[in-house]
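Long-time lurker, first post. I've been practising inverse folding by hand and with some scripts of my own, and I keep getting stuck on stretches where the structure tokens seem ambiguous. Below is the full token string for one chain I'm working on. Before anyone asks, I'm not after the true native sequence, just a reasonable design that respects the backbone. If someone could post their per-position residues I'd love to compare against what I wrote down in my notebook.
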């Protein structure tokens, strides 16, 4: 088992109270929720979803790139 370390987080008292209440209502330890959120945050930062990855590849190839002088022109090009 990996060595566990402690971490302290500064937050507003109201935020803590709300978080602890939700954790208690769901019968989950607050520390476990924080660990789960940290794992999700790390995973999200490593791998873009499939649509984002494909969009980046297209952009690198110069495909589906729009140029506009302003937002109105861009929206017109995108048909929105």
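-- Answer (accepted) --
I ran through it position by position. Result:
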């Amino acid at each position: 088992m990996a060595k566990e370390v402690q971490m302290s987080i500064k937050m507003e008292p109201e935020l803590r109270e709300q978080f602890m209440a939700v954790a208690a209502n769901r019968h989950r330890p607050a520390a476990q929720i924080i660990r789960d959120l940290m794992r999700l945050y790390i995973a999200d930062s490593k791998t873009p979803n499939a649509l984002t990855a494909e969009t980046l590849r297209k952009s690198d190839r110069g495909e589906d790139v729009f140029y506009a002088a302003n937002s109105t022109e861009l929206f017109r090009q995108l048909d929105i």
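A couple of notes from the structure itself: The mean pLDDT is 91. Helices lie at 13-25, 30-46, 50-61, 71-78. Happy to go over any region you disagree with.
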